[in-house]
Write a structure and sequence with these properties.
By secondary structure, the chain is α/β, with parallel strands linked by helices. It has one domain: Glycoside hydrolase/deacetylase (TIM Barrel), CATH 3.20.20. About 40% of the residues lie in helices and about 10% in strands. The strands form two sheets. Strands 1, 2, 3, 6 and 7 form a five-stranded parallel β-sheet that branches. It is globular, with a radius of gyration of 21 Å. The chain starts with a helix and ends with a helix. The structure holds zinc ion. The site of zinc ion (ZN) has 5 residues, from loops.
Length: about 260
């Protein structure tokens, strides 16, 4: 299972990943094609097991599901993520908006805020969102000793585990600065982003939303913060606009590993 194979590796979600995934996809497609055409490495003809019940129509176009809806592979996926929470003033409003729209998001939490507002963390978890770590005190891990950096991660993970019963598997380091030695000390998967509208720099939610919707692409990860009214408003506008365009919001694990 691919998740196991990559768990001990750092996966940076950035454009190079697209290349890797494209190559992986091509190899998989080629392998499937060769299997279907009966090619085998030693030149013999492979026989497809009848039990598989597989028929090949010769058409490579995506087929519709039996109920007439589009095949799942046709869905345009996108992930929306929120850093720096939980926030006593804005996270609940965001959670209400997400629930109304049936959207699952990813939250990268700060350990010290987790300790202050455990009830909000519980709500995030209960609503089915993915929870990741953002460090304990919003520090640049790169500026710390290995021991101090690991403590930032572990302290946050423990705080989250004490509330949700689950250890986070994903981390977004503050400022996107990872500390290389943490690769050896943690199996956490680093998640960066594709679109950063710098929502913390403006209080104009229309501007924030436009910065995202004007350049978003399928499988992008959007970075926002549930730390201001304008960011939360912008998030909901972005969701409404992109859902109208046919995007489906998923948690980051579905972008990275599907
Ligand atoms: Zn942050």
């Amino acid at each position: 299972m691919i998740l196991i194979r990559v768990r001990n590796k750092k996966i940076r979600k950035h454009p190079e990943n697209r290349v890797f995934l494209a190559v992986l996809l091509c190899c998989t497609a080629l392998g499937a094609y060769l299997a279907l055409t009966g090619w085998s490495p030693d030149g013999t003809t492979a026989v497809l097991p009848a039990a598989a019940g597989f028929t090949h129509s010769g058409s490579d176009t995506a087929s519709a599901a039996p109920d007439g809806s589009s095949a799942l592979s046709d869905v345009k996926k996108i992930a929306i993520t929120f850093d720096d929470g939980p926030n006593a003033d804005y996270t609940q409003t965001l959670l209400d908006g997400l629930k109304e729209r049936n959207v699952k998001a990813t939250f990268f939490l700060l350990g010290k805020e987790v300790d202050r507002y455990p009830e909000i963390v519980q709500k995030i978890h209960d609503d089915g969102h993915l929870i990741g770590t953002h460090s304990y005190e919003h520090v640049n891990l790169n500026n710390l000793s290995d021991t101090a950096a690991i403590e930032q991660v572990n302290k946050t993970n423990t705080a989250i585990f004490d509330i949700t019963g689950e250890y986070p598997e994903y981390i977004r380091p503050p400022f996107g600065c990872w500390k290389c030695n943490l690769d050896y000390e943690t199996t956490m998967i680093e998640v960066l982003w594709d679109i950063d509208p710098l929502d913390w720099k403006t209080s104009n939610s229309d501007v924030i939303a436009k910065r995202v919707t004007s350049k978003v692409r399928e499988n992008d990860i959007i970075l926002l913060h549930d730390a201001s009214e304008s960011s939360v408003k912008a998030a909901l506008k972005i969701i409404d606009e992109l859902q109208n365009q046919g995007y489906m919001f998923v948690t980051v694990d579905e972008i990275l590993f599907d």
